[in-house]
């Protein structure tokens, strides 16, 4: 290799000139990318989420309908390795990592809000006390540790996700094929002196695209105490249909509930009552339909942009 390099210097051939031109082109493109995105030389597309406001947070419909975030009890540990969280004709989602909870959903939705309201090409920089207050938490030492642990859990959880259009063509595909890397729930974060700098993978902008997301009433969410009620709030917001119906077994599987169906039924009725108290649903009930139990309600509050 040294001999070859020496010869190139002595006799600049046509191939050497082409190499030099290619290197100059690569450096110029790298400089242009850095100018577009001072935060790591990434060409980060604008993260635009119409309808988002200080009173709401957003979550992609497919993520909200899946069991990626679940109303699991504190301390429960469920590990996933390419677990199928959602499978339909136009969407497939697999996930790997420790099961995420509704608390993780709060952290994640607020992190996405900060990215969406951040100037294009920049990363959100936030005081950890402000972050906690904005998700309805106190600023005790335990809360700071809870937030830090939650951030790490999100950074370790990865998705393989592929969505298709009605004609079968690919809309986007991340992690499903060897040539495309997996999608982290959170790309990572830096922490120093009480300040977080969040790293959000720019591909999330594409998943939020085409208004395929639900808007979550943030004030109402902070008033909900039951994890199952908070989980249902996300599900309800994914559809504009006033009358909504889901089989009890599907809801149980989505909630990662491992107990008997009768126990889940009781928990579900309690959660629906909590949602009704905040006027998010009306007329909640469980009925028998075609030999299966079905939960139904009328959607009152909350908003969606899909």
Q: Count the helices. How many?
A: 11
Beta strand %: 25-35%
Distance between the termini: 58 Å
Question: What characterizes the major β-sheet?
Answer: 5 strands, antiparallel
Number of domains: 2
Unreliable stretches, pLDDT < 50, 5 or more residues?
1-12, 29-44, 302-306
Q: H/E order of the elements?
A: HHEHEEEEHEHHEEEEEHEHHEHHEEE
Overall strand count: 16
Rg from alpha-carbon coordinates: 23 Å
Identify the notable features of this structure and list them briefly.
306 residues; 27% strand; 5-stranded antiparallel β-sheet; 3-stranded antiparallel β-sheet; alpha+beta; disordered C terminus; 39% helix; globular
Short description, anyone?
The chain is an alpha+beta fold and 306 residues long. It is built from eleven helices and 16 strands.
Describe the structure.
The chain is an alpha+beta fold and 306 residues long. It folds into 2 domains: 2-36; 56-304, no CATH class. It is built from 11 helices and 16 strands. It has helices at residues 2-10, 14-36, 61-65, 102-116, 128-134, 141-156, 204-207, 218-223, 227-236, 248-254, 261-277, and strands at 56-60, 69-70, 79-88, 91-98, 100-101, 125-127, 158-164, 170-174, 183-184, 188-192, 195-199, 213-217, 243-247, 281-289, 292-299, 303-304. Strands 3, 4, 7, 8 and 9 form a 5-stranded antiparallel beta sheet that branches. Strands 1-12-16 form a 3-stranded antiparallel beta sheet. It has a 3-stranded antiparallel beta sheet with strand order 6-11-10. Helix 4 crosses helix 6 and helix 9 (227-236) packs across helix 11 (261-277). The protein is globular, with a radius of gyration of 23 Å. The termini are far apart. Residues 1-12, 29-44 and 302-306 have low confidence and may be disordered.
């Amino acid at each position: 290799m040294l001999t070859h390099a020496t010869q190139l210097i002595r006799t600049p051939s046509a191939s050497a000139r082409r190499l030099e031109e290619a290197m100059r082109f690569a450096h110029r493109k790298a400089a242009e990318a850095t100018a577009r995105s001072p935060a790591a030389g990434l060409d980060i597309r604008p993260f635009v989420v119409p309808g988002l406001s200080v009173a709401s947070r957003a979550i992609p419909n497919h993520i909200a309908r899946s069991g990626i975030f679940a109303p699991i009890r504190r301390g429960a540990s469920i590990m996933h390795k390419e677990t199928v969280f959602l499978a339909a004709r136009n969407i497939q989602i697999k996930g790997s990592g420790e099961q995420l909870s509704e608390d993780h959903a709060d952290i994640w939705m607020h992190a996405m809000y900060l990215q969406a309201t951040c100037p294009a090409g920049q990363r959100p920089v936030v005081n950890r006390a402000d972050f906690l207050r904005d998700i309805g938490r106190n600023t005790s030492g335990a809360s700071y540790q809870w937030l830090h642990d939650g951030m790490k859990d999100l950074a370790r959880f990865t998705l393989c996700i592929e969505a298709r259009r009605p004609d079968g063509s690919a809309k986007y595909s991340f992690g499903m094929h060897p040539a495309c890397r997996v999608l982290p729930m959170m790309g990572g974060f830096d922490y120093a002196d009480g300040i977080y700098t969040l790293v959000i993978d720019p591909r999330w902008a594409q998943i939020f695209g085409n208004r395929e997301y639900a808007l979550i009433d943030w004030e109402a969410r902070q008033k909900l105490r039951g994890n199952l009620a908070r989980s249902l709030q996300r599900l309800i917001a994914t559809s504009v249909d006033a009358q909504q119906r889901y089989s009890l077994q599907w809801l149980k599987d989505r909630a990662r509930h491992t107990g008997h169906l009768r126990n889940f039924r009781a928990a579900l009725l309690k959660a629906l009552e909590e949602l009704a108290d905040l006027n998010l649903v009306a007329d909640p009930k469980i009925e028998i339909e075609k030999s299966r139990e079905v939960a139904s309600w009328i959607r009152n509050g909350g908003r969606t942009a899909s």
